[in-house]
Amino acid sequence: MKIRLLSTALLAGLAFSQAAAAQDYDDRWYITGATGFNIQDNDRGTRNAPFVAAGLGRFLSPNWSLDGELNYQNPNLDANQNLNWSQYGISLDLRRHFIQEGRNWNPYMLMGMGYQRAEEEYDVFPNPNSPGEREDGGLAAKLGLGVMGDVGSRAKMRAELAYRADFDGQNVNGDTDTDWFGDVLASVGVVIPLGERAVEAPAPAPAPVPSCADLDDDGDGVNNCDDKCPGSQAGQTIGPDGCPVPVTIDLKGVNFDFDKSTLRPDAVAILSEATEILKRYPELRVEVAGHTDLCGSDAYNQKLSERRATAVYDYLTSNGIDASRMVGPIGYGESRPLEATAQTSPGCRSEVNRRTELNVQN
What pTM did the predictor assign? Predict the structure, then answer.
């Protein structure tokens, strides 16, 4: 009856099998080691005892693993603890792992078959050959549950509770009227993979398909995604949206003190804004032109206007504007006044006429 019940339980466990998911898994061989406590079948006539186990195995798929395992235990007899009773065996254990992504500790179900051998002494007093010895074994089957998880980069740990049926019914120290004995095994163990895990080289990335952000069909320096005016003409001043923009650089505030070519603080502030405009539109070219009022001789005013143009020119080049983008510096003396004044002092003193200009070049 017990044999039929155990066979039914094994078949029911195998019924949980399902096709493994097509996913990556660690298929390296691994070694195992475990220690635990063996709760002996009361019919054996032995006491509960610790046991040890060691094995070799590997994962067959993402959810199934197969281990070959050796075990040993040496419990004492209830009736006479001076007599030896030891047991060892081998089993082939199939585990179904219920793995969930993102979870470190995962449960599993265990099903195993193997062979257990017992070596037991028994009292045959008054026979002079006492104690007698019996060495025999038989088929063993195992069912259990456990949980396994990572405990480092190189090892896993598992805790397990299993029931082992030992079909050796020839026990001479316990109940001899039974077909098999059932032991409960509670253990903890480690799983250590052998070697380095093979890592597949990633598939080469497909060649990128050019997007509008990588294309500039009209060559205006603005990519097709942002260009709202495709087909703009070469030589035009182009804004960030790809459309031609009118550019005006107003330096009417860059004036000088009478008979001076030194930049005043208010002039420096205006030139700073002009510098930002020139940086924003790198295709823009300008003429740097200096002017004077009508006081003084033509020759003197010509030199003074050149010094004023040079002062602005030097400021722009020292602040990151390339000299190739500028024409000049050019002095126009008093030849281009913005307002008409007297030729003599004090009426000739016009701050409006004492100026430097940036004239946009086409």
Answer: 0.49
